[in-house]
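Internal tracking record. Fields below are filled automatically when a chain is submitted to the structure queue. Please do not edit lines marked as system-generated. If the sequence contains nonstandard residues, flag them in the REMARKS field before resubmitting.
Queue: standard
Priority: normal
Entity type: single polypeptide chain
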Amino acid sequence: MRDRQKSDADVLSGKRRHPAGFEFEILTRLPNLYGATLVIPLVFALTARIMPGSGTLEEIARQTAMADIIALAGWLTCWSLLFALTIGCFIVHVMKGPVRVADSYPLPTRDDKTREKRQR
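SYSTEM-GENERATED OUTPUT FOLLOWS
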């Protein structure tokens, strides 16, 4: 078991594991953000129902319906933004892999390419 843990950490030729990046920090905060974006529009819509404005019954019904539409639009907008953010953070987290660093692959230089051509 211990050998396997060591081999996981040394996947990239002796590279050590790094702490999780900013995307993991965002992923851990997302449940709270989803909850907040659910509660805030709900409170707005309930406030419009509990404390209606002045006017006739038709005007109050129209104001309440408008508050419901605004609350629903705000909720859908925030959740679609958070959903896109969740997908992006998840992709970055998966692409980094267990070592959480990029591969240290040396890029070929122009001199290397000309040497290969001359050797042929």
